[in-house]
Amino acid sequence: MTKAELTDKIRKFVPPGSEIYVVELLVHYKVQLKLNKPRSSKFGDYRSPGYDNKFHRITVNKDLNPYSFLITFLHEIAHLTAFEKYKNSIDPHGKEWKSEFKTILQPVVHEHILPVDILHAVRKYMHDPAASSCSDANLMKVLSKYDFDNKQLLEQISIGTTFKLDSGRIFVKGKKLRSWYLCIELPSKKEYKVSGISKVEVLEIKTDL
């Protein structure tokens, strides 16, 4: 695939003006990029080269809006650059990775690529980026405004709210456990941990727990 062909494919998933930067990163670091089906527990991941594959591998959920896609991709690129510098000698989301992420983000943090509300949220987030972009409640809420559907993230709804996952399973939101929530499945009333970044459909029904 030529660089021009790759750029044409990438521009379908990222904000206008960012596609050239994304392609430059893909080509420079020889990245295998895979678009994944929606995952409730994460938006993307990075795998370093191994004995079975000599390339860096990044996956990103294909249902993300362009701004979430871009930030998730750059998050994973920061894992790549951190790996190249430090191998496995650092914490996955420690100070070294945070420094790499801030550097990787810089070229897209301006008004020609990001809407004003996302731009402000990203600048604030860059002061201390979390393990996941969606661990930051403010950035998460701003990014979700640009989603293609009307669903909310579990992080955004109130405790005690009944909701349905894409799988069709129904739960009542319970207390927070770091980035997860202890929720009660209906009708079994069994407790399960559900990721705070899970996309949910709020159900207007009363429950008797």
Oligomeric state of the chains? single chain
How many β-strand runs?
A: 10
Structure class: alpha+beta
Strand/helix succession: HHEEEHHHHEEEEEEE
How far apart the termini lie comes to 56 Å
Mean pLDDT: 89
Number of domains: 2
Gross geometry: globular
Question: With helices defined by DSSP (H or I, 4 residues minimum), what is the helix count?
Answer: 6
Which stretches of 5+ consecutive residues score pLDDT under 50?
none
Beta-strand share of residues: 15-25%
Ordered list of secondary-structure elements with their pairings:
Blueprint: H1 3-10, H2 19-28, E1 31-36, E2 44-47, E3 56-61, H3 66-86, H4 95-105, H5 116-125, H6 137-144, E4 152-153, E5 162-164, E6 170-172, E7 176-177, E8 180-186, E9 191-195, E10 199-202
Parallel strand pairs: 1-3
Antiparallel strand pairs: 2-3, 4-10, 5-6, 5-10, 6-8, 7-8, 8-9
Helix pairs in contact: 1-2, 3-4, 5-6
What are the salient characteristics of this protein?
single chain, 209 residues, alpha+beta, 2 domains, 7-stranded antiparallel β-sheet, 10 strands
